[in-house]
Every structure is written in structure tokens, then in C-alpha cells.
Design a protein that fits this description.
Blueprint: H1 7-54, H2 61-73, H3 87-97, E1 106-110, H4 115-126, E2 130-135, H5 143-155, E3 159-162, H6 168-177, E4 182-185, H7 199-219, E5 226-230, H8 256-275, E6 279-284, E7 287-288, H9 297-307, E8 310-315, E9 323-324, E10 327-328, H10 329-342, E11 359-364, E12 370-371, H11 372-383, E13 388-393, H12 408-414, H13 422-446
Parallel strand pairs: 1-2, 1-4, 2-3, 4-5, 5-6, 6-11, 7-10, 8-13
Antiparallel strand pairs: 9-12
Helix pairs in contact: 4-5, 4-10, 6-7, 7-8, 9-11, 11-13
Pfam families: Epimerase (PF01370)
Enzyme class: isomerase
Domain NAD-dependent epimerase/dehydratase: 107-345
Length: 447
């Protein structure tokens, strides 16, 4: 009779086999993991080598991404989609720059599709000067308004080149094609509050852009042009002495915009001293009028009042009203042309050839500060509609409580005198606003 199987030995054997199987599986998994890890490392290295060979260095990728939009909109003379350069383009530039009156000026206007730039270009062309414009048509505000201004200039024989003030090859090319007698430099990043969202744009436009222009004018242009450029009343910053005089201190800016304009005045002094450039700075005081900037209070208030939207009015902490020295565009244009007409020639070489170069700065204002609330009242009367007002204390966002220009120096040297009161100027603006946006809405409806 056979003896029964030893169940305890069988169980032990089974447990041993199971253990060996688990050990073997673990070894296989571990080996597979190590193999997979090594394969991943090899693949990563291969990808890095591939990107290194075929793409910009990885450390530069962020720079390329940040500037991709700029490269596409601010074209270079070396790009494949060149729309300027060549014989036909040069003929067009020369034609626009040719004066139509004896001893007429030949002026390069930067920011020509901007508010002040458009009006100055039209005024220069109207009196027979040669004018070529330059503008990058950025999207700080509605680019279609800038394109409409460009079309207006084109109808009056002014070419506006689509390019950026920081495009040194383009500036060099323009000054090669035409021996400009003057440059009216109005290109800039405008606005006070926008600096809190995009500070770098102010440095790029107002500081680097000015340096780029002065570099080409000083070191490449022959002859050197006389420079007239737009500074700002904002440079007076926290100054409390009124009316603001060119002799007052400007070392306490209240905004980054003001700081970049103050920096521009220091840069202008440097290029005048070292390179003999004739430079005139103009401190504008709250310019308004037809074809204006939508970010300005009078413009946005008009839009909101007509749409039934509330407007925000500021008051000073002590309860007093915020005041502005509103200056009508036609008066500012007269000041700009007066500065161009009285600008002396650049001397070159820091003035060693023909004596020191001219360096000037002037206020261009109306000399009659008006509470912003009064400006709103005039708009309400012109529009036939009451504004929904939201009154708040003036925040520390770069705005100053008041501006008031002393223009005695501009009167003496430029023959400047403001003649347009606020009610008259706003009436002209409202008439333009209604006509322009009525045409625009009809055009969009029929499209």
C-alpha cells in the first residue's frame, strides 16, 4: 500500500518555485527599466544634437519668440519680402521728398501716420516742402486709423514708408537716397498709464529709437540734418511752480513715459555736444483735435458719451479739479514748423568746424488750463447728450494734477502763439469724429 504524499514538502517546494519566479521577474523588469532609461537618455541626446544642428541655440529661443512679431511687422532691408529698396522705391522716395517751392525744406517725418505727424506732414507739403514719412503702424491703438491717415497723406503726395525707427539699415538707406535738410522726429510710444502694462515699449521707442535716429544722423548722413523732436510737458513731473517754464527743474518725473522723454533730452544734449547735431526739443501740452489719438481723454469721452457708457473723472486728493492745458493741433503744428524754420544747420564734429551746434527746448501749450470736467461739459453740449460720470481720486498711475505752459520763449524765438480756445477746437474735433466714424461704419456695413 503506497504511502500518502507529504503535503508539507509539496507546499514548501511550491513556495520556493514562486519565490524564484518573482526574483527572475524582478530581475527582468529591472534590466528592462535600465535598458529603457538608457534608451531615453540616448534619444534625448540625439534630440538635443538635432536641435543644435538645425535650430537656433536653445538659450536664444526665448529671444526669438519675443521678437518674432517684431521681425514680421518691422521688416529689414535684408529680408526676403522686401517692399522698399530698389530703383522704383528710390524714385518714389525722391519724388515725395522734392520741395515744390524755392528754398523749400526736405523733411523726414518719423511717426508720420500718428496724430501730430499727419498734421505736420500735411502742413509742410501744403506750403511746398518735400516730405517723406516713416511709421511702423503698431497696435497701441487702432491701426486702421493710422492707415486712414496714411491714405490721406498719400492723396496729398506724401509717401509714408512702413518701417520702424529702430531699423538702422532702413534709416541709413533713406538718408542715402535723400539728403534731408531736417528730421521731424515724432515717433514715440505715447501715453502715461500704458507704461504700467508695457514698460519695455517706452524704452524701445523713446530711448533706443531716438538713439538709433541720432546715430545715423550724426555718423552717416551727409550733410547732417537739423533735428526737431517731440519731448513732452510730462517732463515737469512733480513740479509745483506754475506756469511751467523751460527753466524749471525736470528731475522728478511722475511716470515712466516722462522719464523716457527726460532721458531723450539728456541724450539730445550728448549728441549735440559730441557730434555737432542741431537739435530742438518741443514739450507738447495735451494736444487734441481731428484725427487724434483714441487713448486721449477727450476722444474716449466722446466715444463713451455717444454710446451711453460711463466716463471716469479724476479729482485731486484735496478735492480740487484736475486741469489740463489743452492745445489745439493747428497751434502745435505752427510751433513745429516754426522750430523747423528757425533750426540752424548741424555743425558736425562737436562744433569744431563752424562753432557750437544749436541746442534748444521749447514749451508748446495753450497757456489756459481748463478743468477736465469743463471739457466734458463742452462735449456734452456739442453731442447733445449727458455723460454718465464716475468721479474718483487721482491714482498714482503717472498722471499729474495739472499742467500749465509758459510759452514766452517759443513766442520770442519761433513766433509761436496759440489762437484756438477749447470750445472752438472741440467743435472741430466732434465734427470730424462724427463724419469719420459714420463713413467707417457705412464702409464696414457694405463690405
Amino acid at each position: 500500500m503506497a504511502s500518502p504524499p507529504d503535503t508539507s514538502k509539496t507546499a514548501k517546494l511550491e513556495r520556493c518555485n514562486n519565490y524564484l519566479r518573482r526574483v527572475n521577474s524582478a530581475k527582468i523588469i529591472s534590466a528592462s527599466s535600465r535598458l529603457l532609461f538608457r534608451a531615453s537618455i540616448l534619444a534625448t541626446v540625439a534630440l538635443i544634437l538635432l536641435f543644435t544642428l538645425h535650430y537656433p541655440p536653445l538659450l536664444l529661443l526665448s529671444h526669438y519668440s519675443a521678437n518674432a512679431a517684431a521681425r514680421s511687422s518691422h521688416r529689414s532691408l535684408l529680408s526676403s519680402d522686401v517692399t522698399y529698396g530698389g530703383a522704383a522705391w528710390e524714385r518714389e522716395v525722391r519724388s515725395s521728398a522734392t520741395p515744390r517751392r524755392p528754398s523749400g525744406l526736405t523733411v523726414l517725418v518719423t511717426g508720420a501716420a500718428g496724430f501730430v505727424g499727419t498734421h505736420c506732414s500735411l502742413a509742410l507739403k501744403k506750403r511746398g516742402d518735400g516730405v517723406v514719412g516713416l511709421d511702423n503702424f503698431n497696435s497701441y491703438y487702432d491701426p486702421s486709423l493710422k492707415r486712414a491717415r496714411q491714405s490721406l497723406l498719400s492723396r496729398h503726395g506724401v509717401l509714408v514708408v512702413d518701417g520702424d525707427i529702430n531699423d538702422t539699415p532702413l534709416l541709413t538707406k533713406l538718408l542715402d537716397v535723400v539728403p534731408f535738410s531736417h528730421v521731424l522726429h515724432l515717433a514715440a510710444q505715447a501715453g502715461v498709464r500704458y507704461a504700467m502694462r508695457n514698460p519695455q515699449s517706452y524704452v524701445t521707442s523713446n530711448v533706443a529709437g531716438l538713439v538709433a535716429l541720432l546715430e545715423v544722423a550724426a555718423k552717416h548722413a551727409d550733410p547732417q540734418p537739423a533735428i526737431v523732436w517731440a519731448s513732452s510737458s510730462s517732463v515737469y513731473g512733480l513740479n509745483t511752480a506754475t506756469p511751467f517754464s523751460e527753466l524749471h527743474r525736470t528731475d522728478r518725473p511722475a511716470s515712466l513715459y516722462a522719464a523716457t522723454k527726460k532721458a531723450g533730452e539728456a541724450i539730445a544734449h550728448t549728441y549735440n555736444h559730441i557730434y555737432g547735431l542741431s537739435i530742438t526739443g518741443l514739450r507738447f501740452f495735451t494736444v487734441y483735435g481731428p484725427w487724434g489719438r483714441p487713448d486721449m481723454a477727450y476722444f474716449s469721452f466722446t466715444n463713451n458719451i455717444l454710446r451711453g457708457k460711463p466716463i471716469t473723472l479724476f479729482r485731486v486728493q484735496d478735492g480740487t479739479a484736475v486741469q489740463r492745458d489743452f492745445t489745439y493741433i493747428d497751434d502745435v503744428v505752427k510751433g513745429c514748423l516754426g522750430a523747423l524754420d528757425t533750426a540752424e544747420r548741424s555743425t558736425g564734429s562737436g562744433g569744431k568746424k563752424r562753432g557750437p551746434a544749436q541746442l534748444r527746448v521749447y514749451n508748446l501749450g495753450n497757456t489756459s488750463p481748463v478743468p477736465v470736467a469743463k471739457m466734458v461739459g463742452i462735449l456734452e453740449e456739442l453731442l447733445g447728450k449727458k455723460a454718465k460720470k464716475h468721479v474718483v481720486t487721482l491714482p498714482q498711475n503717472g498722471d499729474v494734477p495739472y499742467t500749465h505752459a509758459n510759452v514766452s520763449m517759443a513766442e520770442r524765438d519761433l513766433g509761436y502763439r496759440a489762437t484756438t480756445d477749447l470750445a472752438t477746437g472741440l467743435k472741430k474735433f466732434v465734427r470730424w469724429y462724427v463724419e469719420y466714424y459714420d463713413r467707417k461704419s457705412k464702409k464696414e456695413a457694405s463690405a
